[in-house]
Structures are given as C-alpha cells and as structure tokens.
Amino acid sequence: MSERQPGLEALLRQAPVVPVLVIDDVVDAVPLAKALVEGGLPVLEITLRTKAAPYCIRAIKAEVRGAIVGSGTVLDRHTLKLSEELGCAFAVSPGATPALIEAAQKTKTPLLPASRSPSEAMTLLEHGYGLQKFFPAEQSGGAAYLSALISPLPQVKFCPTGGITAENAPTYLKLANVITIGGSWMAPKALIANKDWAGIAKLATAAARLKG
Ligand code: 3PG
Predict the structure, then answer these.
(1) Is it the case that residue 2 has pLDDT exceeding 80?
(2) Does some domain include residue 113?
(3) What CA–CA distances, in Å, run from 39 to 36, 78, 160?
(4) More exposed terminus of the chain, fewer Cβ within 10 Å: N or C?
(5) Does residue 3 carry a pLDDT above 90?
(6) Is residue 212 part of a domain?
C-alpha cells in the first residue's frame, strides 16, 4: 500500500543503489553525477545539507542526461516545498514527523520517509507510505533486523541507508522487503575533493552490479 507514493517504487528499482550525495561546490555536481550515471547508477539523492545543494540539483537536472534527481535530508515543509520547486523526482527524509507527513499531503513530489522500528513503520503505513527508508540501517540492527520485519509487515518495502558498504550491501539486497539501498561509499569525500571522476565511475559500476 503506497498510495501516497505513485511511481516511486518503479523509479527506485532502476538500480540496486541510490548514491547519497553531499556536494559542497556546485562545480562538482555535473561531473560527479555524470560519473555515477555512466557507471550505471541513474537515481541520485542530493542531500539539502549544503548551500550549494539547490544549485547542484538544478545543474544536474539540466545537464546530465539520464539522471533521476531526488532531494535528501528533507526535514520539514520548507525543504519539501523546495524539493517540489526544484522539480525533484522524489524527496527523502531521515525520519518522519506529523508536520512533514501533513506537508507531504499537499506536495506533488513523492516522499520517502524513514522508520527504524515496527511501530514507526506501521504509523507510516497508516498514512499510506508502504515504501520507507530504513535509517540508520547498520546502526539499527542491519539486515538481520530488517529481515525480521518481512513476516509481520510484508506490505512494507524498504530502502535501507546508513553505514552500508560494498561489502555488506548484498546481505540487504537479497531481502524480500528491500527494493534498493542508499549509500555514499561510491562517492567518497576524498575522491570528490580530488575530482577523481574516473575513480567514482569505477565504484559506481561495481555498485550497479551488486545483487543479493
Ligand atoms: C546519510 O544520510 O548520510 C546517508 O544515510 C548515507 O549514509 P552513509 O554515508 O553511511 O552511506
């Protein structure tokens, strides 16, 4: 049941991994996104944690063919509205509050809110959110924890994010309740600082081939 998230599952299923990006300098946005998309990861989450983020979203949408751009770190109605104004394909939150859920009812951009317990997952389900981010994934019990939710909550599907790496990603991807995973390991700060786009494309290619 995901009546508040039309089209979101199909969008997120386009790749096994959604890069979660923190971009400080707008000049890095387009080459970084190109490296990820060319590596096979078209669905990108640009976190609204930096002053440059809105400019990065605009630039990537305008200049990177094939990129599907969503916003991240959407905490309230202001950041959700900004995501809609920027034309984001989706908006990701690290949690969910009554105010954010209420704002999402008036916003066209599909929201991916987060849960980290059965009660939180059930509350989101009551609001029509069958797709949820599981955050912070590793710190909250990891794939073993998520696996325990399959039987009681089969109608909830997750995008686990937080502490996931190329090494532990397959343990999540093999779960029946995981549609994709989020992570930053394919775009490390050091490689962005060195403008090592080839290095990032290589990590993206490996991530795009991950299977459960
Ligand atoms: C985040 O919000 O920063 C994401 O959860 C990414 O987490 P990671 O850096 O542990 O992959």
Answers:
(1) no
(2) yes
(3) 5, 33, 21
(4) N
(5) no
(6) no
**pLDDT, position 212:** 73
Q: Is residue 1 part of a domain?
A: no
Single out the catalytic residue among 45, 81, 84, 174. Answer: 45
Q: Which atom of ligand 1 is nearest to the CA of 136?
A: 5
Which pLDDT score, from 0 to 100, does residue 20 have? 98
pTM value is 0.96
Spatial contact of 2 and 8, defined as CB atoms under 8 Å apart:
yes
Range of the domain at 195: 8-205
Q: Is the CB of 93 under 6 A from ligand 1?
A: no
Note if 9 is an active site residue.
no
**Which domain CATH number covers 155?**
3.20.20.70
Atom of ligand 1 nearest to the CA of 183: 11
Residue nearest to atom 7 of ligand 1 (CA): 162
Q: Is residue 168 part of a domain?
A: yes
